[in-house]
Amino acid sequence: MDFSLLLQLTLNGLIVGALYGVVAMSFVLIYKASQVVNFAQGEFLLVGAWVCWWFLTEWQLPFYAGFLFTLVFMMLFGLVLQVVVLRPLIGEPVISVIMATIGLGIFFQALMKWIFGVFAKPFPPIFAVERVSVMGLEVQTVYLVSLGISLLIMAGFGWFFTASKHGLAMRATAFDQQVAQSLGVSVPKVFAMSWAISAVVSSVAGVVVGVVNGVSSALSFYGIKVFPAVILGGLDSIMGAVLGGVIVGLLENWAHYIDSEWLNWGNMFQIAPFYALVLILLIKPYGLFGTKNIERV
Amino acid sequence: MTSMTPAGDYRTSYRADTTIFPTRNSRIALFIGLALLCTAPLLLGRYELSLLINIGFLGIAALGLNILVGFTGQISIGHAAFFGLGAFTSAWLHEHLGIPVMLCIPLAGMVTALIGLVFGAPAARLKGLYLAIATLAAQFILEDFFARARWFTGGVAGRMTESPVLFGFAFDRDETFFYLTLAWVIIMFVAAANLMRSRDGRALVAVRDHYLSAEMMGINLAYYRTLSFGIASLYAGIGGALYAHYLLFVSVEAFNILFSIQFLGMVIIGGLGSVMGSLMGAAFMVMLPEVTQWGADALAGSAIDRALRLGASISFLREMVVGAAIILFLIFEPDGLARRWRLIKAYWKLYPYSH
Amino acid sequence: MKLKHLLLGAVAAMVAALPATAQRIPVGHLMDNSGATSDVGVPYGQGVQDALAWANRTRNGINGRQLDVSGFDYGYAAPRAVSQYQAWTGRQRVVAIQGWGTADTEALVRFVTRDRIPYISASYAATLTDAAGRSGRQGVEASPFNFFYGPSYSDALRAMLQWAAQDWRARGQQGRPKYVHMGANHPYPNSPKEAGETLARELGFDVLPAIQFALTPGDYTAQCLTLRNGGANYAYLGNTAGSNISVLRACQTAGVTVQFMGNVWGMDENAMKAAGTAANGVIFPVRTGAVWGQDAPGMNTVREISRVSDAAGTAYRPVHYLAGICSAMLMVEAMESAAANGGQIASERIREGFYARQNWVPRGFEGVCNPSTFAPDDHRGTLRVGIYRAVVSGNTSAGSVAELVQAGTMKIEPVTTIELDRRRDWLGW
To answer: Where are the domains of chain C?
Structure first.
């Protein structure tokens, strides 16, 4: 039992898991507010990463300016998407909406490849110190910054949903659309806002991954990791989504540890989260924090 | 669902009411259509025939998914994995047990159906979104299994297989394989149409429409949901087996999540809950990239080509068209091509009174 | 049916009546410009395209007959490749096909063998070299019509392992070096795995359990930590460039000091730019005798070909471009052999054309294309592997590949050339 390796893997799992949690949070936000499953979440990351890269390399902006512009762009992007594509689909069966988001995903993948090409591109160096040593594990500075940003976003969400007017409106809409409407909440506006916020938050994750691995079209695969995370945490709990993400990150690394020490199968890193997903669905179908769906006849 | 029937078209017996073809003309039209298809290998080239064969076995698999999604109201994003299972099973049965290919195809379908039942049992407890995500997980898990089970799938290198042989006559050319595919399409589609007008078919529809009422009426939800998975897997397995013996090569690379999404696209664009729609949806998904390619070839070298810098990027355009087509269909024609076809038929039937 | 035959007969008569010099030679060209392997598919496909266009223009085609190249981007989806193949053999009756990767090559093996059409792939799987199917390896079928230019994946790995053994001794290290194979569980990275591990044991390496990482970019810190813990000295990266980059960067961050050995499609100039300093020191095999920017007698011809798609002459051509040229030129010269002495350029004769020469370097490409020798039962064209090292000395995010190479931030240095023995027991795996 190599404890130092296990510790380092745990640390890595926590850090990467925070990132998964960020993506899961944005996914759950859309689902909670507008009952839409967004299969194009990975493409939000991709678009965010490419746009930020473009600002930094083509326009030579400093990172903070480019990042800010990216956030503004993504907000508009989410808004436009919701208005143009999702609004006509309100009321359609869930399978149609899933398919529409899948179609969106396909469309944007191809669009990004068309505009930016097929070669992976690196981000310009952003931080003066490239990596930091934490408890023996060398971590990229951007990951630690992303950890900080994730905590900030979570705190922001917490404040937003409990203390701000719009956040409360969103929660009300998620709970019961009819009643919220009758109380004067503009449901289409709430939907649009949730998509905008989700796009912005996803782009943060996209930029972080882009800085670490370079931007390429395969970034959208991070969107697939979202599903085990949200199932683990519960589809309509933002807190659960974050925890789910962290658990997935830890699970991946621990599975890899077990695999490399004893099993030597080789694939546990990728497939363990999905096995866990199926297990959780069998035991606790609503996840750790999801609300049980009480069926009224 | 109201359908426009012409005046004088009425039923006098229960049996007449459950007929598949509402009018005599539609029956005749179908037979003429089949006769035309039978002459296709004589008129069309290999390329067009291969497109039709693709539409054939993909249509069978799409029909299975339609039974699951359209008729029973479940969701499955793992259909490609079952398609692949059918393909690998058929190839394995032929290579290791020496069973003739013509028998392997239905056997593979049955094996896939059994495995579909195994997956369907826990899935029957989940609803909606959770079911979708569970099937997504099943897709990845099965894909991983394919990649690792070298004894079954030839591992990651894939497996070669043979063409079907019937009494010494080998279906190894497009022209001959077309007839085999046509036969299977007819069998499976007639089976599905018959299923839907039987008691079990009505039970499936009841499960979709209002499962609580169905349960109260004595329909065993878990049984029918699992059965639905099994049937969908049967169709997927047969479609996959035909695919394997057409391409003569099966590899795990082909059965990925994108393929599952394509199946879903076929079902939704074709029309949920419509047997004919599955075939139309399959035709759409097969023809869309081809049509885009023709369009691009036609535009190549022209002013539009230069303005958009198409040239090398035509494949991206193709993907974008597929994505956009899905979205546009869902926005403007959510009930799919089947409904659009019904409306067109009704328009002509009632012309000029169709308003 | 009669009408169709009548029409065909009329067309055939017309075709036969045409002077032979006007007849164009239909050739198929499958490429991946948009799919999973497009980052390496684009330069290779460009190389093939430019070389064939140049052959048409400058060498006046094959004995006066122009090549009619039909290019198709199949996006790395095998079924699309198969249906395009049906179109080519049905309508245009292609006589040879320039293929691409594992997906299409494996899917079409049986088809090309049945239809007897030479298929020159960019998939260098060793199983394709067993042309007669007599090597006795499990799962290897006869593939008499599959050719490729360059060493197979297995042979390239064997050559790198031989270099690694030399390098270990040259560095004065004691004891047994440790070797580990890293890659996804997928036909492409798995192709040379067994061959590599077997030879590693033969050469005295300690073979560690293989480490898996997916073909998509991701966070591979866990794999890097395992690598470091295992104490590996030499690690083979079996995946394509995209995920290799992730591993290199993750391992650089984690502080892993391992000699990475890339594969032909896993490291090139674009990957070096994307990975930055993480790619510094990685060695990888190169299929050609020289890379862009180096001097060789054949480089003038290569530069001429490059001007087909880059009139200004400023583009930097990655290693895959040159490999594509050599691959295309082999096909062209095989066709010339078939056409010699007034022969017909039929697909069977083109295959014979591949066997016509020994130590074959296409005319005008000396020093660029390595000599190839094909035999009816042994399609291992070349066993010479050029080993190069990627040298990255600074930030690569600004500027194009051409500018970075010009500035000297990125360099590809030749290390050595290994010529493997043509061992009988190495055929087919």
So the answer is: 23-151+293-382, 153-286+383-426
Mean pLDDT across A38-61 = 90
- pLDDT at position A257 over 80: yes
The C-alpha of B21 sits at a distance from chain A's nearest C-alpha, in angstroms, of 29
| Global pTM value | 0.82
Structural domain count of chain B: 1
Owning domain of residue B95: 40-350
- CB pair distance less than 8 Å for A281 and B122: yes
Whether the predicted pLDDT of C17 surpasses 50: no
More confident residue, A198 or A279: A198
pLDDT bin (cut points 50, 70, 90) of residue A1 is low
Hey, are the CB atoms on C225 and A213 less than 8 Å from each other? no
Q: Tell me the ipTM for this assembly.
A: 0.78
Are B157 and C190 a contacting pair at CB < 8 A? yes
B interface mutation test: which of C186, C191, C310 has the most B CBs within 10 A? C186
Beta strands in B280-352 (DSSP E): none
Homologous superfamily (CATH) for C23-151+293-382: Response regulator (3.40.50.2300)
Q: Got the DSSP string for C296-356?
A: -TTHHHHHHHHHHH-TTS-PPPPHHHHHHHHHHHHHHHHHHHHHGGG----HHHHHHHHHS
Q: What is the mean pLDDT of chain C?
A: 86
Burial class from Cβ neighbours inside 10 Å (0-12, 13-18, 19+) for residue A292 reads exposed
Q: Nearest-CA distance from A64 to chain B in Å?
A: 32
- The mean of the pLDDT values for chain A is 83
Domain count, chain A: 1
Cβ pairs bridging A and C (under 8 Å):
111
Give every CB contact of residue C29 below 8 A, 6+ residues apart in sequence. C45, C48, C49, C52, C69, C70, C71, C72, C97, C98
Q: What's the domain range around A119?
A: 12-221
Show residues of chain B in contact with C114, CB under 8 Å.
Answer: 172
Just give the CATH number of C153-286+383-426: 3.40.50.2300
